[in-house]
Structure formats: C-alpha cells, structure tokens
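Entry 14. Ran structure prediction on the chain below.
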Amino acid sequence: MGLVGSDRTPQQPPGCPDQLGAAIRGREEALRSAKAGRHLPEEQLINRLESIGDYLGRHISLTKGPDGLLAMVDEQAPHLLRRAQELRDEQGDLQRQVNLLRVKLIFSCQSGFPEIGQVYGEAEDLLRSLRNHQEHSANLVFEAFL
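Output, structure tokens:
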C-alpha cells in the first residue's frame, strides 16, 4: 500500500484497481453461467479459481506484515486491534478454503464431474466469504483513518 503524505494514510497502489473485487465479481458471473448450464472447460474453471488464490495472496501480502495496512490500522487506531487480528486470522482461513476448493475441483474434473454441484455451492460460499472479508476490511480502514 502506498502512503499519502507523512500521516500514513493508506492509498491504493497506482495502476492496481480493486483486483480481488474484480476477480470475485468475475467468478460470481462464471458460477451463474454454470448454474444456467453453460459450464466452462475444466482448465478454465481451475484457472479462474487459481486467479482468486493469486489475488487473495496479493491482498494478504499488502495487508499483513510490519508495513501492511493492518499494521497501520493497529498504529492509527489501537482500539481496533481485535478486529484487525480477526481479519488476519480470516485471511489464513480464506487461503486454506481456496486451496481446498481447488483440490476438490481438480478431483471433480478428473472423475467426470460427479460432485460439481457441491463444488459450485462451495465456490459460492467462498466468494460470499471473500466479499464479506473485503467489506469488513474496508469498514475497518474507514473507521481507523476517517
């Protein structure tokens, strides 16, 4: 995260729009298409899930660590420490869910899609969790810096 001036106010990195949000919206559209019977080829399904994992990994690297956004929240608004820690913990859980869903998707593809409906349901749950995490993160930053 870039900083504005010397007051350590977070700023979106240049040329880096909300990539995680865009990836979530794209995957939600893919799931709607799949439910309508327009399934993507297995490679595209796996690649799309991997891109969510990549964007989540970037999000985590920008927020965690001593110079991350959550450290700035800790410094700027110590009364929000508990909520910041909950978001840190949630990030690890979300990353594990992405990895587990990827394995399930690969297995389902290799076995002729017997459990694809369940995999799609879990993907919808994951996307909902990612969107909630993103919303809670934005609310925390808003509270800390405004």
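The first helix runs from residue 19 to 35. Will compare against last week's run tomorrow.
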